[in-house]
Each structure stands twice: as structure tokens, then as C-alpha cells.
Amino acid sequence: AAEVGQAGLVENLQGMWCDAVAVLVGWEWPHARRxxxxxxxxxxxxxxxxWLQILHTGEISEQAPIPAVTExxxxxxxxxxxxxxxxxxxVTCSVAFAKGQERRVFFAIQGLPQADSALQGAAAxxxxxxxxxxxVASVVLADPGQxxxxxxxxSLAPLLGANPEVGRSHPRWxxxxxxxxxxxxxKLLKGSSHGTVLMSIGRQLVDGHWVLSFATPQQAQxxxxxxxxxxxxxxxxxxxxxxxxxxxSRSL
Length: 252
Description:
By secondary structure, the protein is of the alpha+beta class. Helices cover 44% and strands 20% of the residues. It has an 8-stranded antiparallel sheet, covered by helices on one side.
């Protein structure tokens, strides 16, 4: 059972909702713990024994053994439209959110976790992994700001769900998937009754899609590479933050 659960966790860490894994595990852990201890049938008793063998201590902690991520923390770190941001690395492109209304914007990435300069070695890496679970990294489209190297956020998409792809027939175009934010998923889970979550997700969490036009195919490829590289790094950090959940039963 533990191996199946760990395999599912690894699979989700490779998906476009990777940044939701820590949030959902923390949210579901107390409910799952309570269900295990309240179960009384023979089959669920066997499941309890499996848990006890995995944990060895005979006790399941009240909270998941991973960094706690709350809706309020995500809200405070969430970038919003209309915010002025620093654009140290950006590419100019064109986008049209309505027919005949094309505009020039900056394409950039914001909200990446930052290393703590006061820490070094393993401690610094662990802190960076924890920070990755609470930051809200986004691909940003921004209008030029009033000052040099700044922009005003026009639209944004969660980085880990962006899945950028250069157009095969139009190599100057970049297709970007726009997935809902993790906080939207968490709010939906809190507001949905048992058994209606999947229906609510399909109805309320709607994906979008950008088609961005760059001056050259090289710029489109550069923008794609920028997203892919940061995404890979961020996935690694999320995986490191979830290591306590991926430890072998012997380690536990």
C-alpha cells in the first residue's frame, strides 16, 4: 500500500498540478488519519495494521511530515494583475485577448523561490525546497512600466502548468497552457461537499490558452526554454520538499 501511494505521489509531482501536491497532502492528512482510526471493519483494520507497520511507532502524526502550506500564505504570495514587477529577464511578444486587439507585452517569469543567503549547504537547499511550496511561480505577460525594466502584470499563468510549445507550422508562435491557481483548487475543495468535488472541479476550474507571437523563431524558442528550465528546477524542489512522504518504510 505504501509503495502504491508513493508511486502515485511521484506521478503527481511530474504533472501540471505539481505545486498542489504539498497543499493537498496537508489538507487531506488529518481527514485520512481520522478515517483510519475510526474504521472498524476487518478490511479497514488490516489497512490500519499496514499503516502501523509502515510507521513503526504505532502512531500517525496529526499533521503531514512536510512543510505546512495554507491558503493565507498562498494568497499573500500570489501575484495579481495590475501589480508592477521588476523584469530582469524578459522577451517582447504580441498577444490578442480579443479579436483585432493585438498588443505588445513583455513575457517573463515571476515568483520563483529565493535562496536564504544566511544559510549554506544542506540547510540552504532544504529551506529553498520549503520555500518552493509556498511561492506562486508564474509566467507573466506585462505591459511596460513607468520605470526601466519594470512591467505592469496584464495576465499570468502558473509556471508548473504552462507546458509551452513552439508552433510547428508557425515557429514564431508559442502556445502556453493557462491552468487555474492552486488557491482556487483549495477554495473549491473547502467549499465542496463529499462526493461532489470532481463535478465542481470540472465546472469551476476552467483552463485557458495563450498564443504568443515573437519577432523571430529564436525568441519563441528562448521563451520556451526559459519556462522549461525553471519548471524542471521547481519540480525538483517540490520533490525534495516531499521527501518525508517518499521515504521507505524502513526509514520511517
